[in-house]
């Protein structure tokens, strides 16, 4: 029997009203049913990309599950009545899935990272979870794959048949990659986990739990990589707050006008 999966609207994106426990239950259900799909972990940055770009919003529309990656996204859901909703971040979800007995026999493939990072991640996860089974790894170029590279990768996956592919090439590239390749790959589940490759290999230092709970993980990452991330975080965070304010002020008015209009037409 399929479990009901509630979502909550955050700037027009149906975010899964989940916590880690629910997220793992829903993914396990898809895994057992061999239900093919990809999952995204939606941060403020991702939300604003989708808010501004229809093409990227379509990546989220094609996803099986959209988890609230970041406390601010979960706060919006809780403010809409989903009291159990919590941040479900990709890097933490990855480790929780490897530690869940329901996925003990799953085979995994790692796609992403700089040269040598995927192999190091496989070693680190194997040390923590000796039962983990890896079908392979692939370090993609920073550009898009050429046709020959794309065909070779699809053939590799067809030969290895991993159950789960973890994609760590950052937002928005990983979401676009999963949308483009899911139908071509002989796999069941794909997850876009962003910085998990760097966190779990020690290339980046993860935030303390209180920083995550306070919604300040972005600041912790900004301090570590200010040159690359300052524009993304400052711009995305301010745009997010403005967009929430606009929806708060004007969306109720738009709904009220829509409900009044049929009555006006009837009078006329």
UniProtKB/TrEMBL annotation:
CDD domains linked to this entry: Glyco_transf_WecG_TagA
Cleavable signal peptide: none
One Gene Ontology term of the molecular function aspect: hexosyltransferase activity
UniProt-listed Pfam families: Glyco_tran_WecG
Keywords: Glycosyltransferase, Transferase
PANTHER family linked to this entry: PTHR34136, UDP-N-ACETYL-D-MANNOSAMINURONIC ACID TRANSFERASE
Name of the protein described by the UniProt record: N-acetylglucosaminyldiphosphoundecaprenol N-acetyl-beta-D-mannosaminyltransferase
The organism's taxonomic lineage, starting at the top: Bacteria, Pseudomonadati, Acidobacteriota, Terriglobia, Terriglobales
């Amino acid at each position: 029997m399929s479990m009901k999966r509630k979502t909550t609207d955050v700037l027009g994106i149906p975010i899964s009203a989940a916590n880690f426990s629910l997220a793992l239950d829903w993914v396990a259900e898809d895994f057992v049913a061999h239900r093919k799909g990809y999952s995204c972990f939606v941060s403020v940055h991702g939300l604003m990309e989708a808010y501004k770009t229809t093409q990227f919003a379509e990546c989220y529309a094609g996803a099986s599950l959209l988890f609230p990656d970041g406390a601010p996204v979960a706060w919006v859901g809780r403010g809409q009545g989903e009291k159990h909703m919590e941040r479900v971040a990709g890097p933490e979800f990855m480790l929780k899935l490897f530690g869940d007995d329901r996925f003990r026999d799953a085979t995994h493939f790692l796609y992403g990272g700089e040269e040598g990072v995927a192999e190091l991640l496989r070693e680190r996860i194997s040390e923590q979870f000796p039962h983990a089974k890896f079908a392979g790894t692939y370090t993609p170029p920073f550009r898009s794959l050429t046709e020959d590279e794309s065909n070779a990768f699809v053939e590799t996956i067809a030969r290895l048949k991993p159950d789960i592919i973890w994609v760590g090439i950052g937002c928005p590239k990983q979401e676009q990659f999963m949308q483009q390749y899911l139908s071509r790959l002989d796999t069941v589940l794909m997850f876009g986990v962003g910085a998990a490759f760097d966190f779990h290999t020690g290339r980046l230092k993860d935030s303390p739990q209180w920083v995550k709970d306070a919604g300040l993980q972005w600041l912790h990452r900004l301090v570590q990589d200010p040159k690359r991330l300052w524009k993304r975080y400052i711009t995305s965070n301010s745009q997010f707050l403005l967009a929430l304010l606009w929806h708060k002020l004007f969306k109720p008015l738009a709904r009220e006008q829509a409900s009044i209009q049929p009555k006006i037409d009837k009078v006329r």
